[in-house]
Amino acid sequence: MYINFWYPVCLSKELEDKPLKQKILGLEFVAFRDKEGNAHCLSNTCVHRGGSLGNGKCVPENNAISCPYHGWQYGGDGKCLTVP
Protein backbone atom coordinates (compact mmCIF):
# COMPACT_ATOMS: atom_id res chain seq x y z
CA MET A 1 0.00 0.00 0.00
CA TYR A 2 1.19 3.49 -0.76
CA ILE A 3 1.27 5.17 2.64
CA ASN A 4 1.10 8.87 1.79
CA PHE A 5 -2.01 8.89 -0.37
CA TRP A 6 -5.73 9.29 0.20
CA TYR A 7 -7.92 6.31 -0.64
CA PRO A 8 -11.71 6.35 -1.04
CA VAL A 9 -13.25 3.95 1.47
CA CYS A 10 -16.97 4.46 0.94
CA LEU A 11 -19.56 7.07 0.09
CA SER A 12 -20.40 9.35 2.99
CA LYS A 13 -24.05 8.23 2.90
CA GLU A 14 -22.93 4.59 3.32
CA LEU A 15 -21.31 5.35 6.67
CA GLU A 16 -24.13 5.50 9.19
CA ASP A 17 -24.39 4.27 12.79
CA LYS A 18 -22.69 0.89 12.30
CA PRO A 19 -19.06 0.07 11.53
CA LEU A 20 -18.36 -0.55 7.85
CA LYS A 21 -15.74 -3.16 6.86
CA GLN A 22 -13.74 -2.53 3.69
CA LYS A 23 -10.86 -4.26 1.97
CA ILE A 24 -8.45 -1.92 0.19
CA LEU A 25 -5.40 -3.16 -1.72
CA GLY A 26 -5.58 -6.44 0.20
CA LEU A 27 -5.75 -4.86 3.66
CA GLU A 28 -8.77 -4.93 6.01
CA PHE A 29 -10.12 -1.63 7.36
CA VAL A 30 -13.14 -0.48 9.32
CA ALA A 31 -14.79 2.92 8.98
CA PHE A 32 -17.11 4.49 11.56
CA ARG A 33 -18.49 7.83 12.69
CA ASP A 34 -18.08 9.42 16.11
CA LYS A 35 -20.87 11.25 17.95
CA GLU A 36 -20.03 14.50 16.12
CA GLY A 37 -20.43 12.73 12.78
CA ASN A 38 -16.72 12.72 11.94
CA ALA A 39 -15.59 9.74 9.88
CA HIS A 40 -12.66 7.57 11.00
CA CYS A 41 -10.89 4.63 9.38
CA LEU A 42 -8.75 2.10 11.27
CA SER A 43 -7.24 -1.31 10.77
CA ASN A 44 -10.03 -3.86 11.16
CA THR A 45 -8.04 -5.90 13.69
CA CYS A 46 -8.22 -5.59 17.49
CA VAL A 47 -4.71 -5.72 18.95
CA HIS A 48 -5.87 -7.88 21.86
CA ARG A 49 -6.95 -11.12 20.17
CA GLY A 50 -7.27 -10.18 16.50
CA GLY A 51 -11.03 -9.70 16.50
CA SER A 52 -12.75 -7.88 13.64
CA LEU A 53 -13.67 -4.37 14.79
CA GLY A 54 -16.08 -4.25 11.86
CA ASN A 55 -18.19 -6.87 13.64
CA GLY A 56 -18.28 -4.70 16.76
CA LYS A 57 -20.30 -1.60 17.47
CA CYS A 58 -19.89 2.14 17.59
CA VAL A 59 -19.71 3.63 21.09
CA PRO A 60 -20.83 7.25 20.58
CA GLU A 61 -20.39 8.32 24.22
CA ASN A 62 -16.64 7.54 23.93
CA ASN A 63 -16.24 8.47 20.24
CA ALA A 64 -15.03 4.91 19.81
CA ILE A 65 -15.50 1.55 18.17
CA SER A 66 -15.72 -1.59 20.31
CA CYS A 67 -14.35 -5.07 19.60
CA PRO A 68 -17.13 -7.69 19.71
CA TYR A 69 -15.03 -10.26 21.59
CA HIS A 70 -13.82 -8.59 24.77
CA GLY A 71 -15.05 -5.01 24.44
CA TRP A 72 -11.78 -3.17 23.95
CA GLN A 73 -12.60 0.31 22.63
CA TYR A 74 -10.57 2.32 20.12
CA GLY A 75 -10.83 6.02 19.32
CA GLY A 76 -10.76 7.48 15.84
CA ASP A 77 -6.99 7.96 16.11
CA GLY A 78 -6.54 4.22 16.70
CA LYS A 79 -5.55 4.51 20.36
CA CYS A 80 -7.03 2.00 22.78
CA LEU A 81 -9.34 3.92 25.11
CA THR A 82 -10.91 1.23 27.27
CA VAL A 83 -9.89 -2.25 28.38
CA PRO A 84 -12.73 -3.88 30.35
TrEMBL record:
Domain Rieske, first and last residues per copy:
6-84
Is DNA repair found in the keyword set? Answer: no
Could you list this entry's UniProt keywords, alphabetically sorted.
2Fe-2S, Iron, Iron-sulfur, Metal-binding, Oxidoreductase
Q: Which Pfam families match?
A: Rieske
Query: Iron-sulfur as a keyword?
Result: yes
Q: Which GO terms describe its molecular function?
A: 2 iron, 2 sulfur cluster binding; metal ion binding; oxidoreductase activity
Q: Under which name does UniProt file this protein?
A: Rieske domain-containing protein
Q: What is the lineage of its organism?
A: unclassified sequences, metagenomes, ecological metagenomes
